[in-house]
Amino acid sequence: MRIDKMLANMGYGTRKEVKGLLKGGNVRVNGQPEKSAKAHVNPENDQVTVMGEEVEYKEYIYLMLNKPGDLISATEDAHETTVIDILQPEDQVFDPFPVGRLDKDTEGLLLITNDGQLNHRLTSPKKDVGKTYFALIEGKVTAEDVEKFAAGVTLDDGYQTKPGHLEILLSDEVSEIELTITEGKFHQVKRMFEAVDKTVTYLKRTKVGKLELDEELDLGEYRELTEEEIGYLKGITNLE
C-alpha cells in the first residue's frame, strides 16, 4: 500500500497534508526517514511512525451503536442527522456505513462497519440472521398472534413474511413483546403488527443473532466490537 494512502486512511490528513508530513521528515518506516508519498509499505509487517508515534493500521472498523430515536440509518443526508455524523473523526475516516437500517424512531443495536462483505451477509435473507426487537404494543397480544407470526403474516402490500418468533412478556392494554425476524423489510415489525390489527408504540432492537446490545452504552454511545464479537458475526455468516 502507498504510504500516503495508508496515512490518509488512518486520519493523518488529506493526501496533500500527508505529503507535507512526509516532506517535512516526520515519517519513518522501520526507523528510517521516508519522504516519498509513492513509497509502498506493508501495514502488517512494517513499523511506521509519525512524529515518533507508531501508526496502528487497521483495514476494517466494527462498531456497536446504541441508536437513539432521532437519527437516520444512512451515511449522509442533506436534512437529517445520520448515525455516521455522530461518530468521532478518527472513526469517520474509515468511511463506515450502517449494517442494514433502523427506522428513525427505532432505538437500539445498530452495527456500523466498512466491511462490505460482512454487511452484505448480515443483511442477506438467505443467511437467516435473526434480529430481535423489544416493543410496546397498543392492545393485547395473544397466543393467536404468536401462532400467526410463526406462520408468517401478510403485509399491506401482499408480501408474506418469513416466520417470526413472537414472545409475549406482558399481555395488557399496552403489551410488551420480543420478536425475532430474519428479514428487514421497510417498517417490517410495525407492519407485521398492523397485519394483526395492533400498533407498535415503541421499538428497540436488542440483538443481532446472539450478539446483544451492550447495556453500558447509553443512547447515542458506541464502542468497537471485541475480537470475539467480530469472530461470532463472521462465523454465523460463514465468513471465516
Structure summarized in a few sentences:
The chain is α+β, with helices and mostly antiparallel strands and 240 residues long.
List keywords for this structure.
single chain, 240 residues, alpha+beta, 9-stranded mixed sheet, 4-stranded antiparallel sheet, 7 helices, 22% helix, 26% strand, elongated
Oligomer: single chain
Q: What kind of sheet is the major sheet? A: 9 strands, mixed
Percent of sequence in beta strands: 25-35%
Helix content: 10-25%
Overall residue-averaged pLDDT value: 94
Report the radius of gyration as a whole number of Å: 22 Å
Query: Treating each run of at least 4 consecutive H or I residues as one helix, how many helices?
Result: 7
Shape: elongated
| Helix-strand topology string | HHEEEEEHEEHEHEEHEEEH
In whole angstroms, the N-to-C terminal distance is: 24 Å
Strand elements, count: 13
Q: Note poorly predicted spans.
A: none
Structural class by secondary-structure content: alpha+beta
Account of the 3D structure:
The protein is of the alpha+beta class. 22% of the residues lie in helices and 26% in strands. Strand 11 and strand 12 form a beta hairpin. The protein is elongated and about 70 Å long.
